[in-house]
Write a structure and sequence with these properties.
Length: about 500
């Protein structure tokens, strides 16, 4: 059940199909991609002596060689450790040490900053850079036959973002990732040979993990010349390549939509834009649908069940005539086909329809465990269920609406206040571009609601009036902070811990 068999099959059946492009220029066919992966695998296994289950780390920006390293590792029965290219070298050092990585593939621009941290890693045998002489020499080695792997063998060791302490290694098996790929076809989008996935988001994360569906169909893989997200570049690629598909964080979707709206650029070349990884606010998705049409699908997942907890289909997003359309586009959709989703009380008992509780998930996509962390595993995996730490509510039709992370719920005067509900209201103001709501300790109320607002010409009085018009009085912010930008991590998620630190440091409120 080796994931490498997806590439073996694609190369055997469609050897001449274009596999990888840099911008709109073809780089590798499927036969060439498989040939290079087989030779690189032979080098890792034969010359370097790596054994099945050994770890290969990738600390790389998006690159046309990324896929060949992924498949070479699986070809040789190894485990991939993807590392976000924006991490600090000290964070990378921890991941390399914790995973016991034997080989590191690192981008040329990232190696100088990382080199001082590599000396104390006893497990590390070899460092490769793209297109360097050692990589080229490895590709001249003898090809090998893919090694058989059992379904529950480890394939992908993904480290969480670590906003609350050291990151944890999420153990994804070959079975997990095959199940995730099946969910893509069933719940997100079908893929044809003429489709193209563009890696505008990091290949170390959700964008890269979607490669399997496109390899399975012998479709195209596009690495932007910029290596990342540029709205104008994506619009140009959609025109020159066509049938463009991508995964994007909500902030990326918003920027792309703003570019299209301002420039009047054509959008016919975009097929599917899957968004997730953070809250998509109702006003933002309304604007996206108005500007670009029914090209959007929402997914909700975690590293522990990647991309595969729920999905909101393009048909549901586009069905503006549905009587509960506004509520549905504020949700994250329904459980994906191969998982079960429940909303439960702290004791695990299901809560009534419409009530808020913690979201738990069970299915073939849920991780095996955390790497060398039995305590965290036992806390998160209980009786076969993944406890996500996210608070949400299910309606009678099975649509899941997320509230917040359990740790972000504000308890004021004994009442629970979910920051997202307040954020949705504040974003109705035309001058508000971004907002994040947190709780601040208060001697009288326990906590009070505080809003950090990014916008132009916005007054606290106007925001107060908006809140009083749409939500209960006790939920409105007691203080507003007007800031130039919200602090975010490497995946674009707002760092509420940083906002709390700003409050502790006494930044004045407006």
């Amino acid at each position: 059940m080796n994931l490498a068999q997806l590439l073996v099959r694609a190369a055997r059946v469609h050897p001449e199909r274009v596999a990888v492009l840099l911008g709109d220029q073809p780089v590798l066919s499927y036969a060439q991609l498989a040939h290079r992966a087989a030779r690189l695998a032979g080098h890792l296994s034969g010359t370097l002596g790596l054994l099945p289950g050994d770890r290969v780390a990738l600390f790389m920006t998006n690159h046309v060689g990324y896929l060949e390293v992924l498949y070479a590792a699986w070809w040789a029965g190894l485990v991939v450790v993807p590392i976000n290219a924006k991490l600090h070298p000290r964070e990378v050092e921890f991941i390399l040490d914790d995973s016991g990585a034997a080989v590191l593939f690192v981008s040329d621009a990232l190696l100088p900053g990382l080199r001082p941290f590599l000396g104390g890693l006893p497990s590390l045998k070899k460092v490769f850079t793209p297109d360097g002489p050692e990589w080229s020499a490895a590709l001249a080695d003898a090809a090998m036959t893919p090694i058989h792997r059992e379904p529950d063998d480890l394939a992908w060791l993904f480290y969480t973002s670590g906003t609350t302490g050291r990151p944890k290694g999420v153990m994804q098996t070959h079975r997990n990732l095959y199940a995730m790929t099946a969910c893509y076809f069933m719940d997100v989008d079908d893929v044809s040979m003429d489709d193209a996935i563009v890696y505008a988001a990091p290949m170390s994360h959700g964008a890269g993990i979607y490669n399997f569906a496109f390899v399975a169909r012998a479709a195209r893989h596009v690495v932007p010349v910029s290596g990342g997200f540029d709205p104008a570049e994506l619009v140009a690629l959609s025109s020159s390549i066509g049938r463009l598909c991508m995964f994007a964080a909500p902030t990326m979707v918003k920027r792309l939509v703003e570019h299209v709206a301002a420039s009047g650029a054509p959008v016919e070349g975009f097929k599917t834009i899957v968004y997730g990884g953070g809250p998509m606010y109702v006003e933002d998705i309304r604007q996206a649908l108005t500007t670009m049409g029914p090209r959007f699908v929402q997914i909700y997942g975690q590293g522990e069940s990647p991309m595969t907890i729920s999905a909101l289909a393009r048909e549901q997003l586009a069905d503006g005539a549905h009587p509960r359309w506004t509520e549905r586009i504020a949700s994250v959709g329904v459980a994906q086909t191969l998982v079960e989703v429940r909303v439960v009380a702290p004791d695990g008992a299901p809560v009534p329809v419409g009530d808020t509780g913690e979201v738990i998930v069970r299915g073939e996509t849920v991780m095996a465990a955390y790497w060398h962390n039995p305590q965290a595993t036992a806390k998160t995996l209980r009786d076969g269920w993944l406890w996500t730490g996210d608070m949400g509510a299910l309606d009678a039709d099975g649509f899941l609406t997320l509230k917040d992370r359990s740790k972000d719920v504000v308890i004021s005067g004994g009442s629970n206040i979910y920051p997202r509900e307040v954020e949705e209201v504040l974003l109705r103001h035309p001058g508000v571009r971004e907002v994040s709501v947190i709780g601040q300790p208060d001697a009288e109320w326990g906590e009070v609601v505080v809003a950090f607002v990014v916008g132009d010409g916005v007054q606290a009085e106007a925001l107060d009036a908006l809140c009083l018009e749409h939500i209960a009085r006790f939920k409105r912010p007691k203080r507003y902070h007007f800031v130039g930008a919200l602090p975010k991590n490497n995946y674009g998620k707002v760092l509420k811990t940083a906002l709390r630190e700003m409050l502790l440091n006494g930044e004045p409120a407006c």
